[in-house]
Structure formats: structure tokens, C-alpha cells
């Protein structure tokens, strides 16, 4: 069996008609690859279309401000991708006059572009035979060849990359890379794949050794931490609230939120109101204090679970300059904050 030819033949019949597959423009391909990192196609497609509509070229994206880019990205998560997207657009415009690098090695120099994305762009746009390795590719290769090396180990990453490189169709690397990814997404699915219609079934190790459910192998994930977030939602007589831009290098860098008080554990309303940080924020202010959600809203991220409460603080005047309720929707926010704004219905 010719592994690569079998996959590209399958792809020619079953591939989905997606906008970034109808072009070799590196800007479009790069944009799609960044959006689809950690994101399903059905979720990412509307965002891709929105970005292409708002920023049809890399020059348009570079000319945008970061707040606008983050707002358009809102809801996709992993916001560092959006920040890197904007940074890289500026770099390409300022350093390369808007022209993307044309080789795998040069593409790796771009912020937010790793082995997978560089391989995808180089092969699809410039026919460089560089193999992509993503979750779908790991699964197909592990099952077909019976590889039990953990895919998230140093050894596994090298082993699978070398195997993928040895299999790539050097005459048609772009279609082959897209074929194996599409095959993993649609045919060789993580759970309950229909192996009876699989074109690789005759030689698939996992199928013939009953290992479809156990391959690929992964090392155990890092333990997920629990954090307790308490947001102070100010309601003032002049219809303003406090909204702050996050700084530092956290996951929500440069997004906006209500004043945050993080605690080590869940506190009662009385304990929270009398805690030093809250007392400092509300010092000298006449206020009415109430808890919006008595049950924690648990926001699950890949490495931490945020147990969240929203505390409503009604005041005559704010301790610092605020923004009008009606302007809240203009700021890029984490989904957790955006959902609260939609649900709370500020008295505009």
C-alpha cells in the first residue's frame, strides 16, 4: 500500500470545501492556521471569515490596533494567539514589506509560528516538503504504525516528526499534509471511528490488534490548579462602572475585566467584604453590597479552573474614573466577563 497516495486520493473525494483551501495566499493560510490552533473548524470558520472581511490583507491587520483585534477574537480563547497575530502582521509589513517568508526556517522566526504552522504554510503555499504534525496526524500515525511512544514526550515528538517527514509526498506536499490532517479529523476520529470504510484498514496495526481506543498514548497532564476569582461590579448613580485592562503576561493579557480580588479559598460575603484588599478598594465609600451568584461559576481552562463570583457594589460615586455601562461592549473581554455583561443587564 502507498500510504501517502491512499490519503491524497481519499482527500480528493472527501475534503471539506473551506475558504483557505481555495488559495495559496500565505496571509490567508497563516490566518487560518493561527485561528485553528486549539480550535475546531466549525468554531474557527466564522472567525476566519470575520477577520478576512475586516482585515483582507496583512497591511490591514497591521494597521489595526490591538484592542480591535482582541475584540474580534473574543470568544476563541488562547488570546496570546491574537496578540502574536497582530505583532507578526506588523513585523511582516515593517521588515518584509508585507511579503511572507517563503521557507520553513524563515517562517519559524515569526512570533506565534511553531513547527506545525511553519510546515503548513511552507508546504501549502510554497511546495516545500515539510511535514505537519498535529493531533490528527499523531493519531493516524500512531494507530496505523502501532507506535506506543507518548506523543507529548520529547522522544515522541522527534519520532513522529521523523516518520511524518519520511512519508510526505515530495511532489505534492501541501495536499498530502492537508489530507492526513483531514483524514484524522473526519475518518480516524478520536472516538468510535468507522474502521469498516477506512481505506487504510487492511494494514492498520491498531485495528488488527484491538488498539484503536488506546492509541495514541499521552503522558499524564499537569495537575489542574483551582483559583478563586471575585469581581467587583460597581453600579453608580451616573450609570458608570469600573473596567480595568489586565497587564502582565497572563492568559488574558490586555483584555478588560471588572476589578478583581483573588482569594485562596471561597469566602462568605462577610469575610470577603472585610478582607484587606476589598476594604482598601471600598475605603471611604458609601456602598450597598450584594452577591450576584451564590453558586460559583466555574470557568475551566486547560491548566486551571476558576471558581468565580460577581459582587455587586452600588455606590453614588466611583472611587476613580469609570466608563458608561453602554460602552462595556466596546472592550475586548474574556468569555467569562462577556457572559456576565450579557446576563446582568446593566440599567442603561
UniProtKB/TrEMBL annotation:
Q: Could you tell me the EC number(s) of this protein?
A: 3.2.2.31
Q: What CDD domains does the record point to?
A: ENDO3c, NUDIX_DNA_Glycosylase_C-MutY
Which reaction(s) does its UniProt entry say it catalyses? Hydrolyzes free adenine bases from 7,8-dihydro-8-oxoguanine:adenine mismatched double-stranded DNA, leaving an apurinic site
Q: Which cofactor does it need?
A: [4Fe-4S] cluster
Record has Hydrolase as a keyword: yes
Q: Name one GO molecular function term.
A: purine-specific mismatch base pair DNA N-glycosylase activity
Keyword 4Fe-4S belongs to the record: yes
Q: Which InterPro entries match?
A: A/G_AdeGlyc_MutY, DNA_glycosylase, HhH-GPD_domain, HhH_base_excis_C, HhH_motif, MIG/MutY, MutY_C, NUDIX_hydrolase-like_dom_sf
Pfam families reported for this sequence = HHH, HhH-GPD, NUDIX_4
The HhH-GPD domain is annotated at 35-186
Cofactor binding mode, per the note?
Binds 1 [4Fe-4S] cluster.
Which keywords belong to this entry? 4Fe-4S, DNA damage, DNA repair, Glycosidase, Hydrolase, Iron, Iron-sulfur, Metal-binding
State its role: Adenine glycosylase active on G-A mispairs. MutY also corrects error-prone DNA synthesis past GO lesions which are due to the oxidatively damaged form of guanine: 7,8-dihydro-8-oxoguanine (8-oxo-dGTP).
- Spell out the family assignment given in the record's similarity comment: Belongs to the Nth/MutY family.
Q: Kindly provide the name given to this protein in its UniProt entry.
A: Adenine DNA glycosylase
Q: What is the lineage of its organism?
A: Bacteria, Pseudomonadati, Bacteroidota, Flavobacteriia, Flavobacteriales
Amino acid at each position: 500500500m502507498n500510504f501517502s497516495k491512499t490519503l491524497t486520493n481519499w482527500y480528493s473525494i472527501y475534503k471539506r470545501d473551506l475558504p483557505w483551501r481555495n488559495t495559496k495566499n500565505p496571509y490567508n493560510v497563516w490566518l487560518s492556521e493561527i485561528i485553528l490552533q486549539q480550535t475546531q473548524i466549525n468554531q474557527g470558520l466564522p472567525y476566519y471569515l470575520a477577520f478576512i472581511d475586516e482585515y483582507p490583507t496583512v497591511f490591514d491587520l497591521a494597521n489595526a490596533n490591538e484592542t480591535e483585534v482582541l475584540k474580534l477574537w473574543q470568544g476563541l480563547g488562547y488570546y496570546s494567539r491574537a496578540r502574536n497575530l497582530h505583532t507578526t502582521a506588523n513585523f511582516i509589513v515593517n521588515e518584509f514589506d508585507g511579503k511572507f517568508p517563503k521557507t520553513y526556517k524563515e517562517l519559524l522566526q515569526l512570533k506565534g509560528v511553531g513547527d506545525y504552522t511553519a510546515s503548513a504554510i511552507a508546504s501549502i503555499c510554497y511546495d516545500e516538503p515539510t511535514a505537519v504534525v498535529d493531533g490528527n496526524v499523531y493519531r493516524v500515525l500512531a494507530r496505523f504504525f502501532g507506535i506506543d511512544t507518548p506523543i507529548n514526550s520529547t522522544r515522541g515528538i522527534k519520532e513522529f516528526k521523523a516518520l511524518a517527514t519520511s512519508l510526505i509526498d515530495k511532489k505534492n506536499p501541501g495536499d498530502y499534509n492537508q489530507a492526513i490532517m483531514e483524514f484524522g479529523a473526519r475518518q480516524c476520529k478520536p472516538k468510535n471511528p468507522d474502521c469498516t470504510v477506512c481505506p487504510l484498514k487492511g494494514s492498520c496495526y491498531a485495528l488488527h490488534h484491538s488498539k484503536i481506543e488506546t492509541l495514541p498514548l499521552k503522558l499524564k497532564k499537569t495537575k489542574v490548579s483551582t483559583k478563586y476569582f471575585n469581581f467587583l461590579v460597581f453600579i453608580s448613580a451616573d450609570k458608570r462602572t469600573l473596567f480595568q485592562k489586565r497587564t502582565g503576561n497572563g492568559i488574558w493579557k490586555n483584555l478588560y475585566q471588572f476589578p478583581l480580588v483573588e482569594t485562596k479559598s471561597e469566602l462568605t460575603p462577610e469575610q470577603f467584604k472585610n478582607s484587606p484588599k476589598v476594604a482598601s478598594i471600598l475605603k471611604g465609600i458609601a456602598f450597598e453590597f450584594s452577591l450576584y451568584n451564590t453558586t460559583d461559576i466555574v470557568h475551566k481552562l486547560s491548566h486551571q479552573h476558576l471558581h468565580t463570583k460577581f459582587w455587586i457594589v452600588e455606590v453614588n460615586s466611583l472611587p476613580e474614573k469609570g466608563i458608561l455601562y453602554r460602552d462595556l461592549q466596546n472592550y475586548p473581554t474574556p468569555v467569562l466577563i462577556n457572559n456576565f455583561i450579557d446576563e446582568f443587564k446593566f440599567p442603561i
